[in-house]
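Dear U.,

Please find below the material for section 3 of the report. The protein was modelled together with flavin-adenine dinucleotide; I have listed the sequence and SMILES used, followed by the predicted complex structure.
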Amino acid sequence: MAGQRTVIIGAGVVGAALADELSALGWSDITVLDQGDLPATGGSTSHAPGLVFQASGSKVLTELATYTVEKFVDLQHEGESCFLQVGGLEVATTPERLAELHRRHGWLTSWGVEAEVVGPERCVELHPLVDRELVLGGLWCPTDGLAKAVWAVDAQIERARARGVVFHGRHEVTDITVEDGKVTAVVTDRGAFPADVVVSCAGIWGPKVAALVGLGLPLTPLAHQLAWTSAIPGSEGQAQEAVRPILRHQESGLYYRDNHEGLGIGYYHHEPMPYDATDIRSMEEADATGHMPSVLEFTPEDFEPAWTETQRLLPATNDAKVEEGINGLFSFTTDGMPLLGESREVRGFWVAEAVWVTHSAGVGRAVAEWIAQGHCSSWDIHECDVNRFEQYQVAPDYVLERDCQNFREVYDILHPLQPMDSPRNVRLSPFFSREQELDAFFLPANGWERPHWYGANAGLLERYDVPTPNDWAARYWDPIVGAEAKATREGVAMYDMTALKRIDVTGPGAAEFLQGLCTNDVDKSVGAVVYTLLLDVDGGIRSDITVARLGRDHYQVGANGELDIDWFERHLPADGTVQVADITPGTCCIGLWGPKARDVLAAVTDADMTNDGLKYFRAKRLTIGNVPATAWRLSYVGELGWEIYTTADLGQRLWDTIWQAGQEHGIIAAGRGAFNSLRLEKGYRSFGGDMTNEHDPYEAGLGFAVKLDKGDFIGRDALIERKANQKRTLACLTIDSTEDVVLGKEPVLAGGRPVGYVTSAAYGYTIEKGIAYAWLPLEVAEVGTELEIGYFDKRVKAVVTAEPLFDPTMTRLRG
Ligand SMILES: Cc1cc2nc3c(=O)[nH]c(=O)nc-3n(C[C@H](O)[C@H](O)[C@H](O)COP(=O)(O)OP(=O)(O)OC[C@H]3O[C@@H](n4cnc5c(N)ncnc54)[C@H](O)[C@@H]3O)c2cc1C
């Protein structure tokens, strides 16, 4: 493809993979610059021991890893494969970890990777160094193994070179030229390279390179200990580099790999050792000292607990010693995910950073597709998008604290709802002090403290019987959740909806602009509210949003997050007729829902809130007490009521006004736990969990939000094609057992065979059944089909059920 001069900064395992993949897609005029010598440049890749475990709770991380495995197995370096497929074994020495291994096994099954949980004997058979008496079991994944990272760099460089990619070692990038908000050239100590696309694959130097274009990157280099032992008795003279599987002992933050007759040992349980990217040793210093830039001096005192534990787990090491070690630098991010994509601020400046060897080839592929085709067609990578962060999340102190915490937690057992301990109370809604008074249990959402339930509602438990789920599902849960859900259906409740992103789209071109992005028709009369999807060019769902037309040239959008703003900004017309503004921080929202919601509001507004005064999916301005507000008549909990918006300064006043008026109707404040249960009873999907870029609206059950005949919109053509080829669907499963509440990401099995995975799940307190939405092939998605859900080491019975489970005739919402 001509005309796009591309410069990749960094020829580590990520830069090399990108050059290979991009050139394979026919992209030409690619130059790769690295300050070090090729292929062992002195970056993290040069000393990575190369363990590739594919298990992850993140579907895309497993997919990127699986692609990397498959590519490296076939990738040849001087006649040898770049992957030693010795398998991967994760062992448990406590019942809690064994349960976690079952959960991890569930993830692998969900994402299509074969693995099994094995007993202690089999663990020892697979890895004879392991002490049989210590282990309770293991997770065995035969396709895991060791990536020969530097070989993989070399082999991918060779392939890319054969397609015309130019590589320059010993070229340090010292500047990037930006004109009119767009990159134009990369400047090195040996001259400048004109560029239309610049991709920083600079790993631990990422923040330094990003700073050249004025960007802050939420990434911290941290040192991680890696040691190599002398010969292990019984392995002396082992000619093959690795015969035993790679091994993880996560309870102690340890991993192991064979190294001929010795072992390589990696350790994570030392205190985090963050390092400033600008302090990393220069190439001159590296040359002078003989130490690679990414290698810090080994600190044996930090490694002592690792060695003691190693001798316990692998008794044969008692007769060996640690011969050498490093404190090696690699990248951590605030949420543990890579940073991929084009900067929002500087066009043409891309990053592919915070990527492990494990995911490197997949990331190369994903970013190559994104650059060459405008989107990644192989996987849904929105979780990795560099533009996903809120502003506060790129503040240096936040980044440092979170990155260190992610280092600490890298092998921890993390509950899906587990909040971060710190920093907390970052974003507070105007209702916060009132919620505290009601003894709210808060969990963070987009940085906002959001009530999950309220201790003040404990008295409801005298009225409602709420079943207790299993131990795991009962974490970050309280029976009050169920009581709040039931009370919402019977009376009236206030929900703090402030954490959801709100965007103003204004200007004379606003309607046309949104029409070009939305699947639904949003060019409606003032006051109309429309649920719609945003699609990518391939027809995959980018987001689901709610659009209210508040004026001829004014829309308010209820969105999912920063990526929606990014998408909008990338498509703004050049003529300045549309403006996009994030109004979330300056506004707030209460969801007032329940059969008595109208009685409450009637007492504090003169506005006509009857069915005729404000119909379902309409919005209008009104005054509530002293508070000017906007009410949108819709509800994700499936009850009569409104989302009520006002500015942040008036938020507390709004809360107090509604709260006081609600007293005689028994109003409660209710939390997200109840909300989630009620939403699933109504079958309302949530972007990111239930559907992502890889799904289209029809398979997701959202065809009602697509108006193909309204005119063109992004993704329309692709969607027409996809519509004719449906093979899977987002199905509703119910579970009779009150105890077996699943939480999401579990595998679904038909006749014992994995067929899909759970997206989101909750107990339905009104319908008195467990609910699990799941992606399934059409042939097993017929209503009435009996299936099983893999939950830890259990199989939970579930049945495909017609949806929505609650109020299918919509009488409550329209009432
Ligand atoms: C001790 C240790 C053990 C690890 N173990 C594993 C493991 O078992 N499995 C696994 O998957 N991952 C592991 N990792 C992580 C993994 O090594 C890294 O995440 C990965 O190698 C990063 O690759 P990269 O290409 O992004 O970075 P790098 O390999 O660091 O490449 C970045 C390149 O950018 C170049 N560069 C930077 N700035 C400039 C500039 N201004 N001008 C020109 N060039 C520049 C550098 O010279 C470098 O070559 C480990 C890391 C460490 C430190």
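For the text of the report, you could mention the following: The longest helix spans residues 357-373.

Regards,
Y.
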